[in-house]
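Predict structure. Input: Phosphomethylpyrimidine synthase, 436 residues.
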Amino acid sequence: MRNYTTQMDAARKGIVTPEIEAVAKKEHMTSEALMKLVAEGKVAICANRNHTCLNPEGVGSMLRTKINVNLGVSRDCKDYDIEMQKVMSAVNLGAEAIMDLSSHGNTQPFRRKLTSECPAMIGTVPVYDSVIHYQRDLATLTARDFIDVIRMHAEDGVDFVTLHCGITRKTIEQIKKHKRKMNIVSRGGSLVFAWMSMTGEENPFYEYYDEILDICEEYDVTVSLGDACRPGCLADATDVCQIEELVRLGELTKRAWDHNVQVMVEGPGHVPLDQVAANMKVQQSICMGAPFYVLGPIVTDIAPGYDHITSAIGGAVAAMNGAAFLCYVTPAEHLALPNVEDVKQGIIASKIAAHAADIAKGVPGARDIDDKMAEARQKLDWDAQYACALDPETAKAIRDSRSPEEDHSDTCSMCGKFCAVRSMNKALAGEYIDIL
Ligand code: SF4
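Output follows.
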């Protein structure tokens, strides 16, 4: 019989949960050290008590940077099994979290499939699902309808929910007054904004926040405070709307922690590279060290088709400066629903950003694999190199498709017999170096 509600409640009572123990082992730290961070809210272990097949992970700036992959059934891709295959291949490529953004049909069977088969953390955005679930127009939904969907997701075993609690009726005036270039680009944020505009009522996720926290506490659902006003272009970055919402997210973080509910705070968006670090520091200060979950940041607006790269650049700098969790961005961002190859490219780009940041942050053990790769390269041991690679399949396919013309299988076709590694190995071994 468990004598705690959430991981935070347990940590505050000095109880080392199986999840705290498992995460501490993965992060090369003691359970006691991790427990303190969970108690303070600096690490969130998103672990709904109904997600029984979960392989728990911790999210916090001092831990390995985690990545999230957005998937889900949609009108254009409604086969549960195909979507589930994408989920499992994302997990195999290293995604620690899957956000189910299903937007078609009855979403509950797929959500339940995820929480009964997928070991990664599962997140959802209940406001999207509300329209689908009730099959009614947005304006006809009530605050009660939204809260009931949150409860349903909690019962289904969802580990974290994005809630756009930070915009209020005041935001409507601000958006009109400050004339942003891209207004609101958060899908959930725009729905909440539209609902408030059409009904004249206050944001239900803000107004009934305490009731929502009771649900989250009961099932141990982590609240991921959505950033409805995240900038959608460089010109809107770090503006009044974004910062004003962030201040409210800081207040809401504190209120969640008072309920023993774990929190992550979501962040930008499109941000010029020179503003990324400052954004991380401001969030850490205003939200008292709560884990920061960023979408990108995308550092230039002009690369549709390559936004996995623009976001990996921003993501690496963000994670190096305090972001704990990166939401992947695919080459299809701003253009279309990502296909299987886009998903893979997005995951690899995010993994590179996360790993580069972990090395820079000095996360224990983070660089070990790079050192192994260097040793394999020095020995021209290609199988050992593939074993260290983030994407061994692609690495091997490239080498195999362009092997050296002559049979000197120890080198590659980049330099052939001019291979610096080969020349140095032979020279240092006192061997004759044949070039021609
Ligand atoms: S041939 Fe050139 S690129 Fe290839 S392993 Fe040798 S030094 Fe590296």
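The chain has a mean pLDDT of 95.
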